[in-house]
């Protein structure tokens, strides 16, 4: 192993920052604690709440897939199966276009309604002036496809508008959240194209059963040279099991480069032999949570991938996430029917 990685791993142990272990049930509570803002957020009465799907209409696909991801042995990093409908039907790819008309995907995002995609502000503003967001690719989870064939067939939708949080700060990635409005509504009843659920009240976190979450993206498997970069990307969606870290630990690791962590952010580490890597910006951190006053669970997006350490893909290195619940009012304020 790289000596630098060994030194950092040792420091993590010294400062007590290693993620919650599976056998330490008493330590599972901080997972939900790190999402709690102290503001008692509840947007269930927001004027635009009906623009988001009800829990009966979001956050479900093949529920066994995420449940299985929580029980994986070995690396706990795996790729979705090829040539099968997406197990994460809310996943989208954000595509940009340069002034010569060349298009390519740069980030991940999630479908949150029939008209809106949630992603990071970095994906939308961290571009040069000659590049603009052009369209969104929905419904696919095979990034390269074989012989030009993908299953299911991806749907490409043009973009009509993008909204970036007004207080977003690029160097530190504070308030790293953005919305993409599709030029037309999409049908969200297809098995391969459905919205994810968003947390509408902090009381939802009382439904936490453990400290585990999963990050899903098409990000790199590891860093490498530009010449070999194509080979460093997975063909299918990459799923990584994560655990929450205390904000105090996040500050120890990132305070100098990314400012102090507050209620708008949290960090998590991979329990696998491969952590979050580059080009995963905008992707979701997902968790199955019990619906209040119900015996059913749904998949909720609780975080947005914001930044990673330069030692990408290494175990024990935390990644920074935007805390979705902290921005629910902002999300709804910037959604509209027209």
Word description of this protein:
With 338 residues, the chain is of the alpha+beta class. The chain has a domain at 16-43 and 197-325: Trypsin-like serine proteases (Thrombin, subunit H), CATH 2.40.10.10. 14% of the residues lie in helices and 27% in strands. It contains six helices and 13 strands. It has helices spanning 3-14, 29-33, 63-69, 121-125, 247-258, 328-333; strands at residues 77-79, 91-98, 103-111, 116-119, 131-138, 155-164, 178-182, 212-217, 238-245, 265-270, 284-290, 297-308, 319-323. The strands form two sheets. The protein has a six-stranded antiparallel barrel with strand order 8-9-10-13-12-11. The protein has a six-stranded antiparallel beta barrel with strand order 2-3-4-7-6-5. Strand 11 (284-290) and strand 12 form a beta hairpin. The longest helix is centred in the N-terminal third of the chain and has 12 residues, at 3-14. It is globular.
